Amino acid sequence: MNTLIAISGLGIFCLFAEIINLRKAIVPVAVLGLIAILGITVSEFDHPSAWYNNMVIVNNFSVAFSSLFIVLTIFILAMSGDFYKDKPSKFSDFIAIKIFLLAGAVAMVSFGNLSMFFLGIEILSISLYILAGSDRLSILSNEAGMKYFLLGSFASGFILFGICLVYGATGYFDVAEIYALSQGAGLPVWFYFGIAMILIGMLFKIAAAPFHFWAPDVYEGSPTLVTATMSTLAKVVAVATLYKLVTSLNANMPHLFQVVIVAIAILTMAVGNLLALRQENVKRMMAFSGISHAGFMLLALLSLTTAAGTLFYYTAAYAFAGIASFAVITSVTKNKATQNVSDFNGLGKTNPVLAAVLTMSLLSMAGIPIFAGFFAKFSLFTQTIEAGYLVAVIAGVISSIISIGYYFKLILAMYNKDADAETTSFPWVYTVVAVLAIALNIGMGIYPGCMFDLLK
Amino acid sequence: MDVTTLLLLLFVGAVITFIAGDKLASKVALLFSAAALGVTVYLLTTVQQFSSLNVSYPWISAPKAYFALKVDGLSLAMVLLTTALTPLIILSSFANQFKSAKNFYALVLFMAFAMAGTFLAADGLLYYIFWELALIPIYFIALLWGNDAIEARKKAVLKFFIYTLGGSLFMLVAFAYLYHKAGSFLLTDLYQLKLSSCEQTWIFFAFFLAYAIKIPVIPFHTWQAEVYQKAPTVGTMLLSGIMLKMGLYSVMRWQLPIAPEAAKTYMPLVLGLSIAGVIYGSIVALRQKDLKKLLAYSSLAHVGLIAAGCYTLTYDGLSGAVSQMIAHGFVIVGLFYAAEIIYRRYETRTIADMGGIRTQTPKFTSLFMILVLASVALPGTYNFVGEFTVLYSLSQINVWYAVIGGTTIILGAYYMLKMFQNVMLGETNAKLFADVTVGETVVMVVLIAFLLFFGLYPKPLLDLVNPSIQEILTQINRS
Fold first, then answer.
1. Distance from CA of B233 to the nearest CA of A (A)
2. CB-based contact (8 Å) between B158 and chain A?
3. Contact A415 B128 (CB under 8 A)
4. Whether this model's pTM surpasses 0.95
5. What is the pLDDT of residue B196?
6. What is the pLDDT of residue A15?
7. Are residues A285 and A355 located together in one domain of the fold?
8. What is the secondary structure of A321-357 as a DSSP string?
9. What does the pLDDT look like over A315-326, one tens digit per residue?
């Protein structure tokens, strides 16, 4: 709860900093403030507490994921300073919106009441709608914002409808009460309809097939840094929330639920990977790669009681690799009209550090040891086998093989072609963020125990 | 002084080589690889009880994995192969001028590190990680410093990567399943496991896919010739000399003891595939016009025979396979080096463009001749020991296997000698062939000396691997 209040306070400060002429100080203050908030959050580990009639519940799950979100936001904000350099008049708004987005994210993993959950998801989504359309002179950005807003609010409607059905069936918004009721028999059938509706809404938010159609267009049209936010922070938030929602509403889901999850996961992995193969635009490619990763993360829903640690590890590994790769992508395509694979030609020669970071983060996403992505996939596979779904694992393996095809397309372009255009300068801040993020990823790979065991 | 030092030495060597800069890189790399060889020889000669060198630290708590290394005669023999060939391979490349040499030599040492790790690892997860780590450096070595047009090279290397990674991922699934059954990845725990015959079949073939692609066994060999041809000679040497042996070693260490019932049931199938590779490789080699491709296919034939030896599940088969792995490693590195020496002078790999070299350089001709004879398993070379033990073990299973497998020697002699004739003999070539340098001579002489010494006196190496093979056989024949 302290985290949530502090983040909101920081957001409001950034909004007003403009007025008292502190524009230059916004990014450093925001980053330092978030680091302090990270400290507060981490200190709450192992001190579970409940606030305001169980509206907000702080437990290890929420603390761990909140910390991850804060770290990701710090990275994103650090890059914002350079990214919005040429839009000084909107600067404080963009920073403030990103911090509010984080507040929504924290609310989504620490809710104890479905109304709080909905509040969180709306804060997050509305911030993202604005950010997607934030490059207001670009037609693509406008399209992305509009598309995302229309489809996103449709999904929010689904979630709201689902919450109403659950309330109608149980008479509660409080998840603990709903959980207690769901253990007994005799719930009306619309309880399950309600949960299904909420699930559909959440599957939309994480861009799982067949609810993924918005993702490529929105990713492509949004400003690159916003794409980075969506593909790392927003995706991770949505997956964590989905997991928390399913575990806290009903721990013993019927067998049918698992079969549906397996089917959706396999479909998502296949769609994401196969379509990514055909993309020339790097942002679209990353969108489809993100879709396939959503499929992997869905597998965590098959072993609800034990998968929290694995899911945390997977999301962190994926998000750090994503931040590292998007830092490079942002840096390279900053002054370019397109974001095609060919724009990366010869990066291995013009900027070996950025090329190496991008290579490593792509290798992590492809699941090559010693990067964290490997352990993430592997422990997910182990768990899924224990849950008895070998077929999902084999589908995962096959889609991992396919994913090599497009990840390596980018690597090959960097190392095996000569640069077409003159080299532009690469601002140092992207390099610092990229190197830090990939270092975190490799650190997780060398010593995976530190994160697997957090959520025992 | 133990094996962790050895691994650290190679890894730190890779880092220091990278730091040392382009000018010093090759020398630093040579220094570290030679030091690794020194450590290996020191361990082999001074340590009485190899099991005292075993290492085991807890690494990850869930899934439970250890940093566990198993040291016995077999793994040390393979480490010796790695650390003995690496300095020679590095030395052999001194005449080449590589762009950004620091990256190149750092990758070579890193690959040696990963391969040595694969041979030593006694924990399934650790083993898998080393196994995959070895793939990344060779990918970049072949891609960035390879021959021919970039587009063709890119395609060949990507195919190689996807093939091997695809196979390995199925092995990973097998490991995940084994972990689910045994609760640990440790080799000792996996050996204890009692699997039903259905489970064994699945595990056996999941492993087989990974190893058959790496070795390669027919019909998973299609990546091989292209990559051998496109990779720089150093990469080809690392691949054919050491990396293929990772697959063969893993068959003995992991696949057979974990799924022995399936290995017995499917023996005719895997033996058939292996021996088919022998015939196929030999026949295709007959028709090659490119020297490197010819050697690639001859390698396919030889490793097919080694794989057949492993899958006989007999003492002779396994021991012959180990001998032949080491012998083939040395001889194929030598042969690729000879091809490189010719390329440095004539800038061609097409056999038809060569010829008439003998009169210009009798020294090189003799050295090359000995390597060719070793490759066709002439008595007195180490290859003879390996190849004939394997053939003998095949004849114990079924005499026809031995007869068909034996054609590798006849066909091998035919295409190798024909190649030698076309490349070296004939009328004096108009183009000048500068005599081999001291460095080039040293590498070839060391390789040949090794092959001849152990060809005449194979006992030390046989004694070294004997206990490990007995242990593996007990494990295979447990009920």
1. 19
2. yes
3. no
4. no
5. 87
6. 87
7. yes
8. HHHHHHHHHHHHHTT-S--BGGGGTTHHHH-HHHHHH
9. 999 999 999 999
**CB within 8 Å of chain B, chain A residues 382-411:** 382, 385-386, 390, 393-394, 397, 400-401, 404-405, 408
Nearest C-alpha neighbor of A215 from the set A283, A287, A275, A282: A287
**Mean pLDDT, all residues of chain B:** 89
Q: How high is the ipTM of this complex? A: 0.85
Residues A438 and A400 in one domain: yes
A336 and A248 in one domain? Answer: no
> Would you tell me which residues 305-344 of chain A have a C-beta closer than 8 angstroms to some C-beta of chain B?
309
Q: Among residues A252, A287, A310, which one ends one of the domains?
A: A252
Task: Examine the domain organization and report whether A215 and A356 are in the same domain.
Answer: no
Tell me which H or E stretch contains A116.
helix A114-132
- Do A268 and A279 belong to one domain? yes
CA nearest B143 in A: which residue?
A416
For residues A98 and A139, state if they share a domain. yes
Q: Round to whole Å and give the CA distance between A274 and A255.
A: 29
* Segment A216-248, tens digit of pLDDT: 999 999 999 999 999 999 999 999 999 999 888
- Tally of structural domains, chain A: 2
Report residue B479's pLDDT band, with 50, 70 and 90 as the boundaries. low
Give the mean model confidence (pLDDT) for residues A247-251: 77
Domain that holds residue A327: 255-456
Which residues in chain A are contacts of B172 at CB distance < 8 A? 378, 381, 397
Least confident of B300-309, B363-372, B400-409: B400-409
pLDDT-based confidence at residue A5 (cuts at 50, 70, 90): very high
Work out the pLDDT band at A312, boundaries 50, 70, 90: very high
Residues A233 and A299 grouped into a single domain: no
Specify the range with the lowest mean pLDDT, choosing from A104-118, A248-262, A389-403, B303-317: A248-262
Q: Which residue has the tokens 């899934």?
A: B63
Of A252, A279, A300, which one is at a domain's C-terminal end? A252
Domain boundaries, chain B: 1-258, 266-479
Query: Mean pLDDT throughout A337-366?
Result: 89
At A66, the pLDDT band (50, 70, 90 cuts) reads very high
Residues A260 and A342 occupy one common structural domain = yes
